[in-house]
Design brief:
The complex is a heterodimer of chains A (about 160) and B (about 240). Chain A has about 160 residues and is of the alpha+beta class. Chain A has 4 helices and 7 strands. Chain A folds into 2 domains: about 10-50; about 50-140, Beta Barrel (OB fold (Dihydrolipoamide Acetyltransferase, E2P)). Chain A has a 5-stranded mixed β-barrel with strand order 2-4-5-7-6. With about 240 residues, chain B is mainly alpha-helical. Chain B has helices at about 1-30, 45-70, 75-105, 115-135, 140-155, 155-165, 190-235. Chain B contains 7 helices and no strands. The chains are: A alpha+beta (about 160), B mainly alpha (about 240).
Chain lengths: ~160, ~240
């Protein structure tokens, strides 16, 4: 018990100086700034736009060469064919401008005709309109419509 | 009387609406024409993002403004800002997780460094930074002022997130629910379920905020009582 009393009556430590708080605040802000710069450098510093559309890519065709880009367009109905290592298809921009895509790897679950996609890859040569893709990303729209709006009840009573 | 009743009903109504969302979202609403059953994440992700970006971060920002404004300055405002930001962190993390779960089967990737996703991740870092800044300051007045200024500056990121899908080309879809010319994009029972999910998650935020605020009040009261007791003990012992 005496030891407890001694500790209770021991002098209270002086309050921490404001400058210590200030330095800690500065430290937090520096770490925070660094984290934000890392995120920005990973994300949007080099390009605020995630992809080039077919129209933009064809307009800059000569300067793009065989540089790796993300190319966006809508999958042309009837153009999809499954290949041994992926899929080939045609993507279109406005005014029916087209690029043939040969993509490797398995496409996402939603990949289908008439859907916007972003293909990561490059043109096969500096003048070619054929695009070699290494990854397909599906860019779905924000429109949600029931798959079977006029569905009927099955004999067992279920509706789906 | 009304205030007491609404406080009592907040919890049950919140959980009833969330239960209704789950029931409608999983069993009643139809699958989507393109996304099939993946559309059921529509009843979670947009509502959680709405709370994270606008409701909780907005509450923290408004409370911070009210704290900085001399006429409305009070510890209650500082406490509300702090508690709202804590809840905001939870909802921002949930937004990123549910978005990632939705993105994998639809886009084909868990994450993309596009403007919408990156700016949302930055908001999460800013919210965590706010909480870190509060812990870095010992003086309550200084802490409240610095964190309020930080919250207001951080809120600049919210409109950037909102308009990112319009200003830049992103993998993330455009505005959900309405187009820029107010055309409804979600059809039939899906729209009603989405609306209920928005109300349910918004009420969940206020329920969590209330619980967190009460905890903070209790903690402050316990701290003050312990301090007063220590002072009176030393006075009795003749130290002070």
């Amino acid at each position: 018990m005496p030891s407890t009393e001694t500790s209770e009556l021991s002098p209270v430590a002086p309050p921490k100086s404001p400058s210590r708080s200030r330095w800690r605040s500065v430290g937090v802000l520096v770490v925070l700034g660094a984290a934000i710069i890392v995120l920005l450098s990973q994300g949007i510093l080099h390009s605020l736009n995630y992809f080039e559309t077919v129209d933009q890519a064809l307009a800059q065709r000569s300067s793009l060469g065989t540089k790796v880009i993300r190319l966006e367009g809508v999958v042309k109905p009837g153009s999809i064919s499954r290949t041994s290592n992926g899929a080939s298809f045609v993507i279109t921009g406005s005014k029916d401008r087209q690029v043939f895509v040969d993509a490797h790897g398995s496409p996402p679950q939603l990949f289908q005709a008439d859907i916007p996609v972003v293909v990561v890859g490059h043109f096969t040569s500096s003048t070619s309109l054929d695009f070699e893709g290494t990854q397909i990303l599906v860019k779905h729209t924000a429109t949600y419509i029931a798959a079977h709006p006029k569905r009927v009840k099955a004999p067992n009573g279920t509706t789906r | 009387m009304m205030k007491e009743l609404s406080q009592r009903l907040l919890g049950p109504v919140t959980f009833a609406l969330l239960a209704l969302t789950i029931w409608l979202g999983l069993w009643v609403t139809p699958p989507d024409k393109v996304q099939g059953n993946l559309v059921r994440l529509l009843y979670v992700h947009p509502a959680v993002a709405w709370v994270a970006l606008y409701v909780s971060f907005g509450t923290a920002t408004i409370a911070s403004c009210l704290y900085l404004w001399k006429r409305t300055r009070s510890w209650d405002m500082d406490r509300i800002a702090h508690c709202a930001m804590e809840v905001s962190v939870v909802f921002i993390i949930l937004t990123l997780i549910t978005g990632s779960i939705w993105g994998r089967p639809t886009w084909g990737v868990w994450w993309a460094w596009d403007a919408r996703l990156t700016s949302t991740a930055i908001l999460g870092v800013l919210a965590l930074g706010y909480l870190a800044l509060r812990r870095a300051n010992d003086d309550p007045t200084l802490r409240a002022k610095r964190s309020a200024v930080f919250a207001i500056v951080s809120a600049i990121n919210v409109p950037i997130i909102h308009f990112s899908v319009q200003w830049w080309k992103t993998l993330h879809q455009g505005a959900t629910v309405f187009t820029s010319n107010r055309q409804l994009l979600v059809h039939g029972s899906m729209a009603w379920t989405l609306l209920i999910s928005f109300v349910g998650f918004t009420l969940l935020f206020f329920w969590l905020l209330r619980a967190r605020y009460r905890l903070e009040v209790e903690r402050d009261a316990a701290y003050r009582a312990a301090f007063d007791e220590a002072v009176s003990l030393r006075q009795r012992e003749g130290v002070l």
